[in-house]
Amino acid sequence: MLKGKVAVVTGSTSGIGLGIARAMAAEGAKIMLNGFGDAAEIERLRSSLAAEFGVTVLYSGADLSKTDGAGDLVRDAEARLGRVDVLVNNAGIQHVAPVEEFPLDRWDAVIALNLTAVFQGTRAALPGMKARGWGRVINIASAHGLVASVNKAAYIASKHGVVGLTKVVALETAEIDITCNAICPGWVLTPLVQAQIDARAAREGVSVEQAGRDLLSEKQPSKKFTTPEQLGGLAVFLCSSAAANITGASLTADGGWTAQ
Ligand code: NAD
């Protein structure tokens, strides 16, 4: 379905971004991977994706927390792959602390990556999408883009910001075959969440397995983690012709979290 298209997936060396990059490669898209990690491991990932799906897969280590890192990534993909048709703004970080103890440098770091990089990457990708008359911008927000929890001020502000930005971009591109949507996952078992489970296990003196179960039952009525594969399927659906008139939407994949 995505043969001939180029997809840039930010933060795709791990977790959800990797699941989405895999799903897009399986549909025939050329992929620009991005994110941090061990260089040999990333190269293994890049070459195995390319071999498994018979598509071009490149990698950029652009640091999206830098002022225009996301813009540089998009321009790099355009230079090396010829175009950017699908931009998945996925890279994100978390910091957990009560508001009055939340360090300003952590606030700035979360906002820079989770929100400003989405703005910068989208700004860079839209002119090419408009020139070709087709584009898909998919922002990985969160259930925390729709509702709040304690101790996550910067993350929740950033994800609510992403949901708002998604609507603005959708309106500004509404008459072109460009859509901009937010995916709002609940808990997905990735390194980002594993760190929170490990911290909870240590804090409460319970096993990591128990802490994982407690985390789920607190928020996610299905009591099942959403998977990177499911989110890959949803992102591919948003690129399909069936989804051509879905824009400005926030699609939850949260096991009922935000239905409560
Ligand atoms: P993860 O930690 O597994 O992956 C994050 C990715 O971002 C990695 O590839 C990492 O290298 C990359 N990254 C980090 N800092 C970067 C930077 N400065 N520049 C470029 N890349 C950078 O996290 P994840 O759980 O897969 O999260 C992906 C997205 O999904 C995030 O935006 C997160 O907020 C969102 N999300 C996650 C969950 C969850 O339960 N895991 C739920 C809702 C939303």
TrEMBL record:
<dbReference type="GO" id="GO:0003858">
    <property type="term" value="F:3-hydroxybutyrate dehydrogenase activity"/>
</dbReference>
<comment type="similarity">
    <text>Belongs to the short-chain dehydrogenases/reductases (SDR) family.</text>
</comment>
<dbReference type="InterPro" id="IPR036291">
    <property type="entry name" value="NAD(P)-bd_dom_sf"/>
</dbReference>
<dbReference type="InterPro" id="IPR050259">
    <property type="entry name" value="SDR"/>
</dbReference>
<protein>
    <submittedName>
        <fullName>3-hydroxybutyrate dehydrogenase</fullName>
    </submittedName>
</protein>
<dbReference type="InterPro" id="IPR002347">
    <property type="entry name" value="SDR_fam"/>
</dbReference>
<dbReference type="Pfam" id="PF00106">
    <property type="entry name" value="adh_short"/>
</dbReference>
<dbReference type="InterPro" id="IPR011294">
    <property type="entry name" value="3-OHbutyrate_DH"/>
</dbReference>
